[in-house]
Amino acid sequence: MTKSFSVFGSVVLPDKIFKGTIFVTNGIITKVQKTDFPPKGSINYSDKYILPGLIEVHGHLREPGMTQKEDIPHGTRAAIAGGFTTIIDMPNTNPPTITIKLLNQKINKIYKNRSYIDYAFFFGVAKDMLGEVSKVSKKNIVGLKLFMAGHETTPTTIPDDIILEKVFKIAKKRDLLLALHAEDQDLVDYYNKRFKKTGRTDPALWSELRPKPVVIKAVKRALKLTKKYKVRTYFLHLSTPEEFALVQKAKQQGLPVYGELVTYQLSFSINDYKKYGNKIKVAPALRDKRNQKILWQLLKKGIVDVVCSEHTPHEWKTKNQPNVWIAQSGTPNIQESLAATLTNWVKQFGIKSLEQGLMTIVRTGSYNPAKIFHFKSKGEIAIGKDADLVVVDPKTSWKVKKDDLFTKCGWSSYEGLTLKYRPAATYLRGKLVYSNGKIIGEPKGNFIKQSIA
Asked: What is the number of helices (H) and of strands (E) in the chain?
């Protein structure tokens, strides 16, 4: 049975915004037309913006083994409330997703009929399980995830260049994207040993334990191997202008590299540890205000490839305590990310720049991720694409409170803050799945297989 409808509003593309109507049939966009007024029968969002659904490329939904932190139904409901319609699941679960058997379990059981959004997977890399990396089906993963350094929830680190180079060789041979958590373990160990002697336990210590040299050295090491093997290398959660400069230089040399920025780096800085404590302990660590201001400029100038939430939920008891050595790294962020980023964009650049901010979000949150990770039906409001749509209301405000949150962990670093630009509605493949704070319907997320040429 054919199901058709249309929506009218300010359509946001990566490079322009216009009043228009999006026509949808059976979940697919069939026409996008500039119109000054809504056609008869259209859903009228005339005072709102319509964006393509966001793609969370860095989601930690914690199954299997850590469901006290998060699970698929809760995490994906939080996602659609935040405007995300697709998520790439990360492998540092318990046990970590470093075997084909566990990956298949995620595909066929853990996510199936439980996810409210579409989904794909990274495959984890462990030094004693490289045989699995050599055999895993390319259709079932978007790429490999590798930790060059670890923290509390990363049991599969590969700190040395010998094993790292072996992984690059496999990625090259199999034409797999390699996503790197780029911190240098030797420097991490050095700073840990140095600061343990001080007896300090305060949250602000974290950014001193993992200063800029930790990430810059790791990116340089990885880029040498990228240059040698020409592997598509995706740098996760870059936190400094220096890292982005290294990636930009590599791009200019023709290397296939990408740099990701997480929204919490744009929302919080080291100045906020006193107020928020270990709630904002993240890895890589937060930087100072000057660093943050430059990151905003890099985002505005188009230097940043991807912006994501890096949704990293932990149970409250592991975060609500003062000792930085014990608190786990990460913060839940997927429901608040879009609203927080647009709110802070306007604070940085003024209300007249809002539409530039919206186009930037579309480019870095939808369009680029779809291209990088080969989601052919996602990322654009264009004919033939899935009708994944997010409606943003520029007039409403949202004071974040626990009762609004869908994540299972039940807390937010943004709690008590007033954000604007909260999604008013979200459509997944043409179905309204979220409206004004309410989830609509049952889980309808699909597994996205990779198209192999």
From this structure: 15, 18
The DSSP bridge partners found for residue 432 are 427
Strands 43-52 and 389-392: antiparallel
Q: What is the pTM of this model?
A: 0.96
Give the model's confidence band at 152: pLDDT under 50 very low, under 70 low, under 90 confident, else very high: low
Burial class (CB in 10 A: 0-12, 13-18, 19+), 285: buried
Do 4-50+386-404+420-439 and 53-372 agree at the fold level? no
Residues 6+ apart with CB under 8 A from 258: 232, 233, 234, 235, 247, 305, 306, 368, 372
| CATH for the stretch 4-50+386-404+420-439 | 2.30.40.10
Show me where the domains of the chain are located.
4-50+386-404+420-439, 53-372
Model pLDDT for residues 46-81, shown as the tens digit of each residue: 999 999 999 999 999 999 999 999 999 999 999 999
* pLDDT tens, position by position, 115-147: 999 999 999 999 999 999 999 999 999 999 999
Q: How far apart are CA 104 and CA 32, in angstroms?
A: 38
| Amino acid identity for residue 211 in this structure | P
* Alpha-helix residue ranges (DSSP H) falling in 98-238: 100-105, 130-135, 161-174, 185-196, 205-209, 212-229
Name the DSSP letter for residue 157.
Answer: B
Q: Answer for the pair 262, 215: CB distance below 8 angstroms, yes or no.
A: no
* Cα distance between residue 169 and residue 267, in whole Å: 37
Give the DSSP H or E segment for 258.
strand 257-262
At residue 179, what is the residue type? A
For the chain, the farthest-separated pair of C-alpha atoms sits apart, in whole angstroms, at 71
Q: Could you say which DSSP state residue 53 is in?
A: P
Strand, helix or coil for residue 44: strand
Residue 286 CA from chain centroid, whole number: 17
CATH class, 53-372 region: alpha beta
